[in-house]
């Protein structure tokens, strides 16, 4: 897998993304493009419009032009790579696709987006049926808010993944507290000891985890030591309240947790080693006077966390 796939999917529905418009969705709905998880398929499952697909599929085009879909990024940011997935589309995939991006402030309508200035970030690229196509985006550090997926001339695409670095507008929090660890605020898990069962960035995703796979869970540790992850905060700040949520982790929650703030090589204890309960949201008031840029979350000895929230103020 290319390195950019470890970055958050800025377009993902569960991170606030939306397919706001499409030229056509006669056979399969446009919203499928940004669903989480792998596309599913059941052969010979027919509805009123034909075979049911977990993807976006347009009618056969009989006029000039091409089909397109407009996606609002749930997390605006700098795009580092795109995945165009034609899973299960074998005789009806588009032979080519391209991706454009735009930076549009506020809450634009589809008509306003159509009139925006668009930049091509993925040139017209040949596609194969039932395959993932990974395309790295280089040399562009622009903060984008929307992308437009073009397919030539028509057909079906199962998923669109837009991986990148989150670039939020934190000015709305001036004078207010915020979750310094949150993915949507620019937080990022930059390292962890183990991600055997699920990705560590899940713990700073929006909303609540619906099941174990939507949190972070490590393999069973068979050697000395403990598991950990390192969160880069939205900016240097003072963390006043930590939420450590083990919801859904009933038989595989850690026994204890500790939090350490870091600025460069300097460390400050935020929360000493503290007992956790399974399947429980925990809240801890913290008292420290030094702004930190990162927080290390140590779990003892292993296990899973559903969410980590670190509320406080930017320094």
TrEMBL record:
Keyword Hydrolase listed? yes
What are the EC numbers?
3.5.3.4
Tell me the superkingdom of the source.
Bacteria
Enzymatic reactions: allantoate + H2O = (S)-ureidoglycolate + urea
Keyword Hydrolase among UniProt keywords: yes
Q: What SUPFAM superfamilies does this protein's entry cite?
A: Galactose-binding domain-like
GO molecular function term, any single one = allantoicase activity
Which pathway does it serve?
A: Nitrogen metabolism; (S)-allantoin degradation; (S)-ureidoglycolate from allantoate (aminidohydrolase route): step 1/1
Q: What class of enzyme is it?
A: hydrolase
Q: Which UniProt keywords apply?
A: Hydrolase, Purine metabolism
Q: Which Pfam families has this protein been placed in?
A: Allantoicase
- In the record, which residues are listed under signal peptide? none
Q: Where is the Allantoicase domain?
A: 16-166, 186-314
Give the family, as the similarity comment puts it. Belongs to the allantoicase family.
Under which name does UniProt file this protein? Probable allantoicase
Taxonomic source organism: Nonomuraea spiralis
């Amino acid at each position: 897998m290319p390195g950019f796939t470890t970055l958050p999917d800025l377009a993902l529905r569960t991170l606030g993304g939306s397919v706001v418009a499409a030229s056509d969705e006669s056979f399969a709905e446009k919203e499928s493009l940004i669903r989480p998880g792998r596309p599913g398929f059941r052969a010979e499952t027919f509805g009123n419009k034909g075979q049911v697909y977990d993807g976006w599929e347009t009618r056969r085009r009989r006029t000039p032009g091409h089909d397109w879909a407009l996606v609002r990024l749930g997390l605006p940011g700098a795009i580092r790579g795109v995945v165009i997935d034609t899973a299960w589309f074998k005789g009806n995939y588009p032979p080519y696709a391209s991706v454009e991006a735009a930076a549009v402030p506020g809450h634009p309508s589809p008509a306003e987006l159509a009139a925006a200035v668009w930049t091509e970030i993925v040139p017209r690229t040949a596609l194969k049926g039932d395959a993932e196509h990974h395309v790295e985006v280089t040399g562009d550090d622009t903060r984008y808010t929307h992308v437009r997926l073009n397919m030539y001339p028509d057909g079906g695409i199962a998923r669109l993944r837009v991986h990148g670095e989150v670039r939020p507008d934190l000015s709305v929090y001036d004078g207010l507290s915020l979750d310094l660890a949150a993915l949507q605020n620019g937080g990022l898990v930059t390292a962890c000891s183990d991600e055997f069962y699920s990705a560590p960035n899940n713990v700073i995703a929006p909303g609540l985890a619906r099941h174990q796979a939507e949190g972070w869970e490590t393999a069973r540790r068979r050697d000395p030591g403990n598991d950990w992850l390192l969160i880069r905060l939205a900016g240097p700040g003072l963390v006043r309240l930590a939420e450590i949520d083990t919801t859904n982790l009933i038989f595989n929650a850690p026994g204890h947790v500790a939090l350490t703030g870091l600025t460069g090589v300097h460390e400050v204890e935020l929360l000493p080693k503290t007992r956790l309960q399974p399947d429980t949201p925990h809240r801890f008031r913290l008292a420290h006077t030094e702004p930190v840029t990162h927080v290390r979350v140590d779990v003892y000895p292993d296990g899973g966390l559903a969410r980590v929230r670190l509320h406080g103020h930017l320094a």
